[in-house]
Write a structure and sequence with these properties.
The complex is a heterodimer of chains A (997) and B (278). By secondary structure, chain A is an alpha/beta fold. Chain A contains 32 helices and 38 strands. In chain A, the strands form 9 sheets. In chain A, strands 13-12-27-26-25-14-15-22 form an 8-stranded mixed beta sheet, with helices on one face. In chain A, strands 32-37-34-36-35-38 form a 6-stranded mixed barrel. Chain B is an alpha+beta fold and 278 residues long. The chains are: A alpha/beta (997), B alpha+beta (278).
Chain lengths: 997, 278
């Protein structure tokens, strides 16, 4: 006791001396001390011990005893508590627990209290060196992006280059796979996607938001002029003014309307990093605040989530699949790979850069055959060669049924596997043979639906039925443009059913196009961003299963039990109500839950706090969003954005966020975790990145975390949000210490070098192949934490998540939900696209089927527009008369009929909108089909927003907002009928153009 | 004497544009004194990726040909430059941007179109092979470092080694007829500058159309058989590496015991003959 008292007293006695000394050596700390003149009292609760610290003009002094009116008080319950907390190496679990049990209390204004906490934390970080000195004044930092990790060379505070990472000789050696007498091993480096190499031009883009802005005709005290959103200009304001307006509007919402009036939303992705990601800092802030979240549809999975789940489970993967050791299995045993709506060379899976490219080259080297089924002769097809089959968009389900027809009638399927591992083929067989509807689903029948010659279909079915075949369904299993058509759920269901007939899990028979399933160490703990980062949000992220017990931190729980489905935001605002379905991945039945907005007893949404400008480019029928933004029902719109683009131009207040190159963060190459568990196994190496703050934020921009931190101080919620004054770097360190990485490399070394390459496991430690256990009737032996225990029928790890534990051709969950649902019957039946050739009237008017896949050279809206270097990529945008137009790819025959020449400007239109694009004439699409990537970052209506011709390339203004199936929250943007004609020079925008709500 | 040479494998280019953007990353916003001024934000293509689509739906292929400065040994730009463009002993051709100022004609001097005009600085500019990095010890220029497929390679070798590589890997020059002695070599260039004749064979069986797999298809040029292939599982065949506009060919098809089919084709550009019914 006496000793404890001595320790605490002397620590406190020394604290101001340490700070003054630190200020002498570290200018940043001296600067910090100059920021505030305040008095901080540290004491025990019973006042048996105390010392107060006076911060004045950059100096700190202290005095034993108690100040009469301190600005901040830090109060410890007991002497022991004070001793534990005031030590250099704090135990964070102990610290967080002490806060939760009020053994530590902090009082005072949030601004002052957090400043003191941040100052103490900063003291612990001093002296740490980040980055490697390359000589001549150049420092090499590390960072991570949506297209791979990078080195960042900085000189005089300016980024001079961003490159992929070449490993040095201290980094681990890669794995080797031996297959068919050859040895395959990846290079000792990381690859990047093109859009990653555009980052420097995006950081220094002329479209960067450098100051807070206010719409000129927005007056929070008077006329708000909501109808002028998207039309009026902006004026620069100070951060104080911007934050005051936002904070007072937030308060007004809470006081005037009650819980639920504030809505927050983002794009589907963010700048990389576990701390700054929207699932992390943003969730923590809005949960702490209490707000209505926008709930996203599983926009890259869609049909898999709403369809495939009912046949093989995997709800936690949104219907995607296991992917372990499939690269080795494929190279060793497969005879053919069918790429179906799969273009990993364009998309890099997700975040996977060009890691899979070399592996697909090995496929070629070994002479393994490839087939590509896609309405577009995609880049993977062009790279690998092989047979190309081009179905009409949204008709892939007819191919599925016809393949099954050939297999059933010619006996080309694995009867033993079907008997042991599946149920319900008899019921499906009846439909395929036409016993239920009189229509045998023959290759000839499918030809009428798909345009694929019957002979080619038969040849494919026979090849597939007699060769060990891998199915790459989507760039990453669980993705693919076909899953975002009107029949996307049917296609994904079909992918599972077909593989069930061929023995999924047997050697050479599995899912994937060498995009996933590298032999990396999956047992090494380092979470991805979907594990929630610092959010403490164990309800809406995967924090509960992975992060929460590893990094002690306070939870954050949203008290507002109301949500708005993302695809229905316009209806929620304009009509005041909407419905949708939840995306609850914990169990199959999670998706049957209905969302009703407004929720009972909650306020309607009156304010939207949005991250960035991506709705227009990436959602569907997006002129609706323009109409929504211009409605007086939305009293206040704030957009926190890096660039001035898209819907950022529809805000009342714009808060300038900085990029991840201007803040601290931590992450792993291609690892999102959560819904794509172990997604790093798209890579050839596990690479962990200390994302350095390479340069100071440009202009007055700030990191998302800092903006939220500033707001939280004004709103009086800083203590729970910042957990007592944690900076981003503090969080990065805590995160690092929560992972297995801390056992491999010291914090100081990691902070300096910026990356760590995890050694690959020995051959004997490699994971078993996906589904091999299932095929062989053993308990699961893959390192897959889901299915959750309660969802097994036969005991933990025994069988799949389905009711029978088997692959179900006839789905039990759909039988339970609604056996008579015409759109989603228990067995997969043929259903024609609701926007396609079968809609006679519409098809006559709009005879071109437009597909809008995920883009190749931008990461959704990131890396598009912004006057950045991707503009110059010939296949991304085309410069015509001084403007970079978006490209639409049309068949030469369709072009000739319309008098359209290469790079003519064309108007692509339907009842929902009209977009001016540059025409690229090609044989890569069939006549009657056109291809234009989704996700233009630019939305530039020539007249009234939402009602006029758009020339930025926002082709999602044309896509339908109808739900894929009624009982879903799923978009079907790849089922879109349009007409294309030459854009007449000087054609006036049609103000009267029908706006289809 | 070792010199730098670039080797470009057209079969490995997939138009990812990493080379193109890495070049921009290196040169936009950065001046490398003694090597080059900044590249303008837009408009220049120091490595220019050309696209060639061959055939007609649905039997097509696509090739891409990255085109940097050829670092020619007999460079027309040097000849036209009046001393403002120089060749280094390691083979790299560099523009002296001070001496070349105002000489817009140099843009036209390059038959490969590799020189670009910087309007702001009134200087011609081009790919420098990232000589400023190679001189600092980098092993490869930025475009090569960023290439994920192995399409681009940069090697520092003497003539003897080079000759061996050219022979072993079957390398060729782009437009040898320009006679400029380029130091950039191409592999699988036929994918870009040659043509194919392709088609799909079908036959009737039990009243249904089937792919004629395993048929013998022979290609004749003036009665000389120049190639023979078998149709694949889809009945498809393809004769490649034919010259553009090379005129009349004869194709003879033999499938099982069916009668021989003879087709005459006049080759202009790559052609998909479509479905040939046996």
């Amino acid at each position: 006791m006496v000793f404890d008292k001595f320790v605490v007293s002397s620590t406190l006695y020394g604290l101001d001396k340490i700070m003054n000394t630190a200020a002498k050596f570290y200018p940043e700390f001296a600067q910090r001390l100059k920021e505030k003149n305040i008095v901080v009292q540290i004491r025990l609760r019973d006042k048996s011990l105390g010392r107060f610290f006076t911060f004045h003009k950059g100096r700190v002094s202290s005095k034993k005893g108690f100040h009469a009116a301190p600005d901040v008080e830090m109060i410890f319950d007991t002497l022991e508590r004070a001793k534990k907390t005031l030590r250099l190496k704090r135990n964070m679990l102990d610290f967080v627990s002490a806060g939760k049990t009020y053994q530590i209390q902090v009082t005072g204004q949030d601004e002052d209290a957090m400043w003191f906490g941040e100052t103490l934390n900063l003291l612990f970080m001093l002296g740490a060196k980040a980055g490697v000195d390359m000589g001549k004044g150049v420092t090499r930092y590390a960072n991570n992006t949506n297209g791979g990790p990078v080195f960042v060379y900085v000189k005089d505070g300016k980024i001079i280059r961003i490159t992929p990472i070449d490993f040095d000789n201290t980094d681990a050696d890669p794995w080797v796979i031996e297959a068919r007498g050859k040895r395959f091993s990846p290079q000792r480096r990381t690859t990047v996607s093109a859009h990653t190499l555009a980052w420097k031009s995006m950081i220094y883009s002329q479209d960067r938001l450098l100051y807070p802005m206010k719409r000129v005709d927005f007056d929070p005290q008077g006329e708000r002029n909501c109808q002028n959103r998207g039309i009026s200009g902006y004026e620069r304001i100070s951060w104080d003014e911007a934050l005051d307006i936002v904070a007072s509007e937030i308060r007004r919402m809470k006081v005037e309307y009650g819980p639920g009036a504030i809505m927050h939303g983002s794009g589907s992705h963010h700048t990389f990093g576990a701390i700054g990601y929207f699932t992390s800092a943003k969730n923590r802030f809005f949960n702490t605040l209490g707000a209505t979240p926008v709930v996203s549809n599983p926009d890259s999975w869609e049909g898999w989530h709403w369809g495939a789940v009912h046949h093989w489970g995997h709800s936690s993967k949104n219907g995607g699949c296991e992917s372990y050791s499939t690269v080795e299995d494929c190279l060793k045993h497969a005879e053919m790979v069918v790429f179906w709506s799969s273009d990993p060379e364009a998309t890099g899976g997700v975040y996977g850069a060009h890691e899979g490219t070399i592996r697909r080259q090995w496929l070629k080297e070994l002479g393994i055959k490839t087939v590509h089924i896609d309405p577009y002769y995609n880049h993977t097809a062009a790279f690998l060669g092989g047979k190309w089959l081009a179905p009409k968009p949204g008709s892939d389900n007819a191919i599925v049924l016809a393949i099954a027809y050939v297999w059933l009638t010619e006996g080309l399927y694995d009867k033993e596997y079907v008997a042991k591992n599946t149920i319900g083929l008899e019921a499906w067989q009846k439909h395929i043979l036409g016993e239920d509807d009189g229509i045998p689903k023959t290759p000839e029948w499918q030809e009428k639906e798909t345009g694929v010659p019957a002979k080619d279909l038969r040849a494919l079915a026979r090849e597939w039925g007699t060769k060990k075949t891998y199915l790459a369904a989507g760039g990453l299993t669980g993705f693919g443009g076909a899953c975002r058509t009107a029949t996307g759920a049917d296609w994904a269901r079909g992918m599972v059913c077909l593989m069930a007939m061929q023995g999924l899990g047997k050697p050479g028979v599995n899912m994937g196009g060498l995009q996933q399933g590298t032999p990396l160490d999956t047992r090494f703990f380092f979470p991805g961003y979907a594990e929630g980062g610092i959010s403490g949000d164990y309800l809406n992220t995967a924090s509960a299963v992975n992060m929460y017990q590893r990094m002690p931190h306070t939870p954050s729980i949203n008290t507002v039990a109301q949500a708005v489905p993302r695809l229905k935001i316009p209806e929620a605002i304009l009509d005041g109500k909407c419905e949708g379905f939840a995306k609850d991945p914990l169990t199959i039945e999670g998706q049957f839950k209905r969302i009703k907005y407004p929720a009972p007893g909650y306020s309607q949404v009156k304010m939207y706090y949005k991250y960035g400008g991506s709705h227009f480019g990436t959602m569907v029928d997006t002129n609706r969003y323009a109409a929504m933004y211009r409605s007086p029902n939305l009293e206040f719109v704030v957009n926190q954005s890096i660039w001035f683009e898209g819907e950022a131009k529809f805000a009342d207040i714009i808060l300038p966020a900085c990029t991840n190159f201007e803040r601290w963060d931590i992450s792993e190459f291609a690892h999102c975790g959560g819904y794509i568990l172990n997604s790093f196994n798209q890579c050839n190496h596990r690479v962990f990145i200390l994302q350095h703050k390479c340069i100071e934020p440009l202009g007055e921009s700030k990191s998302d975390y800092e903006i939220f931190s500033d707001l939280s101080k004004r709103l009086g919620i800083a203590l729970p949000f910042c957990e007592g004054g944690h900076s981003e770097l503090d969080w990065v360190k805590r995160y690092f210490e929560a992972t297995d990485l801390a056992k491999k490399i010291s914090w100081r070394k990691f902070l300096k070098k910026g990356y760590y390459v995890l050694p690959a496991p020995s051959e004997k430690r490699r994971d078993p192949v996906s589904y091999r256990w299932f095929a062989e009737g053993r308990p699961k032996d893959t390192p897959d934490i889901t299915t959750l225990p309660g969802d097994y029928s036969q005991g933990y790890g025994r069988g799949l998540q389905t009711q029978s534990g088997k692959i179900e051709f006839e789905s039990s969950s759909l039988k339970r939900f609604d056996p008579n649902d015409p759109e989603r019957p228990p067995i997969l039946k043929y259903r024609a696209s609701w926007e396609g050739p079968h809609n006679k009237d519409l098809y006559t008017k709009y005879p071109i089927q437009l597909i809008t896949p995920h883009p190749r050279y931008s990461f959704h809206t990131q890396s598009d527009g912004k006057d950045c270097t991707t503009n110059d990529i010939k296949d991304h945008r085309v410069l015509i008369d001084g403007y970079y137009y978006w490209i639409i790819r049309i068949n030469t025959q369709d072009a000739a009929e319309r008098g359209i020449n290469e790079y003519d400007l064309v108007k692509v239109y339907n009842d929902r909108g009209a977009v001016i694009c540059a025409a690229q004439l090609t044989e890569r699409v069939a006549p009657g089909c056109a291809h234009s990537y989704e996700a233009s970052a630019i939305y530039e209506p020539l007249g009234e927003p939402g009602k006029s011709v758009e020339r930025g390339g926002c082709v999602n203004t044309l896509t339908p907002s109808r739900m894929m199936i009624k009982n879903s929250h799923a978009m079907a943007g790849n089922s879109c009928l349009v007409q294309i004609e030459k854009w007449q020079e000087g054609e006036r925008c049609n103000e009267e153009m029908a706006y289809d709500n | 004497m070792k010199k730098w040479h670039m080797i470009i494998d057209v079969a490995k280019c997939e138009d990812c544009n990493n080379c193109f953007l890495a070049c921009k990353d290196e040169h936009i916003g950065n001046e490398w004194p003694g090597y080059t001024l900044e590249q303008p934000l837009h408009g220049h293509r120091w490595i220019n990726i050309m696209r060639r689509e061959r055939g007609q739906f649905p039997l097509i292929d696509v090739a891409y040909r990255p085109t940097p400065c050829m670092n020619c040994d007999q460079a027309p730009c040097i000849e036209a430059s009046q001393g403002s463009i120089l060749k280094r002993p390691d083979g790299i051709v560099l523009i002296d941007y001070q001496k070349a100022k105002g000489k817009k004609d140099l843009v036209k001097a390059c038959p490969y179109g590799a020189i670009w005009w910087n309007e702001e600085n009134q200087t011609p500019q081009k790919c420098t092979s990232c000589a400023h990095l190679l001189d600092e010890g980098w092993q490869q220029p930025r475009c090569v470092q960023a290439c994920p497929t192995g399409c681009l390679k940069m090697i520092l070798v003497d003539q003897e080694e080079l000759d061996k590589i050219i022979k072993d890997e079957n390398l060729e020059l782009l437009h040898p007829e320009f006679n400029t002695k380029p130091n950039v070599y191409y592999k699988n260039l036929y994918r870009y500058d040659k043509c194919f004749i392709g088609g799909s064979l079908a036959y009737e069986e039990k009243g249904r159309s089937e792919c004629a797999s395993g048929a013998q298809v022979s290609l004749y040029k003036e009665k000389t058989k120049i190639a023979e292939v078998q149709t694949d599982a889809f009945g498809d065949f393809k004769f490649d590496r034919l010259e553009e506009k090379s005129g009349a060919y004869t194709i003879v098809i033999q499938f099982k015991t069916y009668n021989k089919i003879t087709l005459n084709v006049n080759l202009d550009q790559s052609i998909n003959l479509g479905v040939i019914q046996i």
